[in-house]
């Protein structure tokens, strides 16, 4: 076992979006910061998007699901049909995302007060507290879009012109107009103009798993590379096995060098855990010891509980005319918040976002769209069937909030391990009846929408399709009460001094929007709070 020569200022575990944002802020102050990331640094030209077989590669070695990739740097995630989307590499989940850039809304931070269904609680902060960090995050990342959506509060963040999509954007907007629904062009975390040594989007449309031009923002190109330039020591291939404590105080971490197999200890005055919404509770549980027998920050059995993923139902809309649906980012061109807010007359609380997205390339078309429910026939009719499908569809993603409950959780698998012999993460998850009702309501609205533009629909049928695991929120959520949360409102772990936890799992509720904008804003706020506390000389600890 080797040790760092001296105690560093800050150790960040996890090189994703949150870790990168925190590192960029802290290194600017001159703090000595080390980041441990078990995955590699992925070069933009090594991604699936530069391959002519990109649609196959997305389903294999570049899948967002670690159980499909099975790389040595991955850890298994067990539990029924759970399909997690996470990426163990510098940049984390931003290596495998659509770059949809929605903020949460003020009411999303008050779901405990609004209805309290399940384990819904209020956030320990408000939209107004987070708003300046939303703006800062947008400006660091580079966001394209259009100001002025009347369904959102006004904000001051910069916007580049929207990226041009295929004509399916106009078809989707026309469908919403016919239905009398709200719609707005989507903000995207991709740039339409050269920015920060990154090239603008060239509309290749193959960007779910990386961007060779780095037009799509990631934790690496927006944050971590700047932190490295400011002095961050980034160690890749560093698999953390446990957080080291002295009594009830975090003092560092042990890790394995995946290339050499050598074990190391890093000692730090402050430990920041940012290992994603499954990896973070997994590591907290793996760090159990005599002083913390149930794992760190787990005095009240909250670590891993209240896992929320968003409810999803995905529907392909088929038209008779070409739509240029393979041009422009894969992320949604248009969204509707017509049904976003709670209306109890619908039979459920919360609401939904409907996002209208490109379907992709020829493999998507041949297999029958994003949902693979309308495949071209094999044999003599294949060419005609393919021609009827290619470039003649877009898909609608119905996305609901997700009611948190105790039984949706992350634990340690007693039998399955990763390549280092550490326990896999085990998940238990079932969609709440409230969200199932919301998805069924949304499915009926999609059918109405398609009928209004003389289009056909294919999808999961009456039972809404839910591919659980795209957004891994809630399992180390923040709150005001240690009996129902893992950290306080400043991300300080309950019951463990000098341990800060900040990533997508910190989200108390999920809203009905993708989390990337909120995750980065939380991390920038967390970093500012840490700078203020360190300057005051106070130890980082949560009261309660």
From TrEMBL:
SUPFAM superfamilies: FAD-linked reductases, C-terminal domain, FAD/NAD(P)-binding domain. PROSITE patterns: 4FE4S_FER_1, 4FE4S_FER_2. Keywords: FAD, Flavoprotein, Iron, Iron-sulfur, Metal-binding, Oxidoreductase. One of its GO terms (molecular function) is flavin adenine dinucleotide binding. Its cofactor is FAD. Residues 191-221 form the 4Fe-4S ferredoxin-type domain. The keyword Signal does not apply. Belongs to the GMC oxidoreductase family. This is NAD(P)-binding protein.
